[in-house]
Amino acid sequence: MYLGVDYYPEHWEGHMLEQDLERIRNMGANIIRIGEFAWHLMESSEGSYDFSFFDNVIQRAKEYDLKVMFGTPTATFPAWLAKKHQSVLSKDEYGYIRVFGGRRQYCYNSDIYREYSKKIVEKLVEHYQNEKNIVAWQIDNEFGHEGSDLCYCELCHRKFQQFLSEKYRDVDELNKVYGTIFWGQTYNKFEEIPLPQPTITTHNPALRLDWARFRSHSINTYAKMQIDLVKACKGEHQEVTHNFSGGFFDKAYDLNVVAEDLDFVSYDNYPVWGGLSEPLKPEHIAMTHDYMRGLKNKNYWIVEELMGAQGHNVIGYLPRPNQAKMWAYQAMAHGCENLLFFRWRGMTRGAEQFCLGIIDQNNETGRKHEEVKSYIEDVKKHETILKSVIKSDIAVLYDYDNNWSWHIQQQSAEFNFTQELVRLYAPFYRLNANIDVVSIEKDFSRYRVIIVPVMQVIDEELGRRFEAFARNGGTIIFSFRAGIKDRDNNLHFEKVYPCHIRTITGIKILESEALQRGQQVQVAGVGEYEGKEGKCTVWRDLITPEKAQVLYRYDDKFYRENACITLNHYGAGNVYYVGAGVDGQILQDIARVIADDLGIRTIDSPEGLEIMIREAGQEEWCIINNHSEDEIMFNGIKMAAYGSKILKRSELITTTL
Ligand code: GLA
Ligand code: ZN
User: Fold this and answer.
1) CATH code: domain of residue 641
2) C-beta of residue 8 within 8 angstroms of C-beta of residue 342
3) pLDDT at position 653, please?
């Protein structure tokens, strides 16, 4: 198990190296990540490569028993390169050049940039291919992050038109699929097709979806070029990874494609960042971990675990004592096997003066250092448990075409794609059930429950997969707007909603309503849910049940005859349709019924107390994390505020878990 820190020795005077490495080692670390932004240090002018600085660092690290993950430095290219080839700089949607001075401002499609990237990466990796102390290569840094997924330069424009000409047989087919007859936008040739840059009103939804696909393709082809090169140059003992950022549903970038080519996935876990007054909710953080595990259906690394408050120009929330440490335990609970904290010491100069690390600018060890030290000391005793495989009966399914379709047209000003996934993930998370979060590209037939949040893009093929899953005994939970669009981002024609799943849901939907800020609608339980009530926000589908039973209906003047939540017994399975943005408690009750009916392992725990069960050897272990600021007594165990414990299930006084 690797436990360590992100370390930037180039930020500090040479004499700091020894004391840093010694203190990093004494803290219990056994790995450091270096190099990811140091291109100029390795190529200070074109063609003059010099790795002597890092040769020394790696040599000294070896003497402190510190292994190395080395980052290829292509996220931050040298000023001389920007000066010589301005074309490598990306452009924003207004056509403005993203000038040198930040990071990641290169164009993924720039052939010139790809050539320079290849040269530095080839020289670097070949230089260290026999370096036994380097165990892994990190490719670049957070592809697509901080707005770098989009570039509107002339080259990207031409490549986008080429991308479309390869996708569509001819421009007539594109016109037909896009419906360009609308607003007289018919193209005579691909060269007439614009970038979806700012215009009056809005662009064609089908074009915008193809644009998102093209952006993802641009990043993924750049990434693959670099991954293939590293694999060709590296030593057999060295693995290849990339550190994905959070906010992965907000980018024109499908991470699954790059993940295919990696030996393992790495993730940068920042439950809170600049400007935020409080962290993401525990269920949201947990879902991001389950998503990362789902990329390759295997455990992953975290190469940047937040320890200090973060922010570039505006700093975010200060993690409370042991809260950041608890987040690191939570990561391990959800399948992180190796973890590095960001970062050894915050840099006193440059853009990240306020991205604080373990050691602050006083260069003294303090609270954060002690938290990391005790964390390392504890988790390394539990390596076998933390490397065990997580098996889930439940999966949340997502699809990037669908995600992008929602980002293109929100339909309700209150709609947030990630929050709609969290809405349906949370009820099962609160039961402490294991949950996978995977793309619909993966085979989901092995699960017992699939949760399908706001899957508005459903084509015939996906409809058939859902039908087979239900017929064979699976439980499906759809939420609102399911099946309204085809894979071209156009509304289905001459089909009653929800298209391709109408039979298995046993309902039809003829009208719906977008609910804006402050709008909410009462809902009332029916049948076994009689007497229960709640509300919905964001959206509501006015459901007419055909074969399905009604669990909740709307409780307002005109639509009290319409169902809000339904259940249809189809084949050997059950198909729920949650037609609105309903309260958490309503979904919690339904999740409880489903889990009990199917005998899915759950654990009742107080609000804020997260428990993951891991099997290791013949034992079941509980990884317990208290996300609340209050002490919680649980099964005879005292959980301090933001406390974490790893203990045998049998150590709990009752086995009613
Ligand atoms: C990201 C980047 C790091 C650093 C941190 C600051 O995760 O990968 O280089 O900028 O954010 O929080
Ligand atoms: Zn570009």
Assistant:
1) 2.60.40
2) no
3) 64
**Which of 386, 403, 419 lies at the terminal end of a domain, its last residue?**
386
State the sign of the Cα–Cα–Cα–Cα dihedral 57, 59, 60, 66.
positive
Question: Does residue 634 lie in a domain region?
Answer: yes
Range(s) of the domain holding residue 445: 394-598
pLDDT tens sequence across 118-167: 999 999 999 999 999 999 999 999 999 999 999 999 999 999 999 999 99
Q: Hey, what's the torsion of the CAs at 85, 86, 90, 93, to 10 degrees?
A: -150
Q: Is residue 257 part of a domain?
A: yes
Considering the domain architecture, whether residues 138 and 23 belong to the same structural domain is answered as yes
Q: Could you tell which of 104, 141, 302, 327 is best to mutate to test the pocket of ligand 1, judged by most ligand atoms within 8 Å of the CB?
A: 141
CB atoms within 10 A of CB 50: 12
Residues 488 and 549 reside in one and the same domain: yes
Closest Cα to atom 9, ligand 1: which residue? 141
Which ligand is located closest to the Cα atom of residue 36? 1
In percent, the amount of the chain with pLDDT more than 70 equals: 99
- In this structure, the answer to whether residues 278 and 365 fall within a common structural domain is yes
Q: Which ligand is nearest to the CA of 311?
A: 1
Residue 273 within a domain:
yes
Residue 252 maps to a domain: yes
Cβ 305 under 6 angstroms from ligand 1: no
Q: Place 655 in a pLDDT band, splitting at 50, 70 and 90.
A: very low
Q: State whether 426 and 305 are in the same domain.
A: no
The CA–CA distances, whole Å, from 318 to 247, 310, 395 equal 20, 8, 33
Q: Do residues 382 and 472 share a domain?
A: no
Distance CA(512)–CA(271), nearest Å, equals: 35
Please determine, for residue 657, whether its predicted confidence score (pLDDT) is greater than 70: no
Look at residues 219, 298, 294, 288 and name the one whose alpha carbon lies nearest to residue 263: 298
310 CB within 6 A, ligand 1: yes
Task: Name the average pLDDT for the chain.
Answer: 97
What number does the ligand 1 atom closest to the CA of 36 have? 9
Within this chain, do residues 304 and 380 fall inside the same structural domain, yes or no? yes
* pLDDT value of residue 617: 84
Q: How confident is the model at residue 656 (pLDDT cuts 50, 70, 90)?
A: very low
Closest ligand by atom to 141 CA: 1
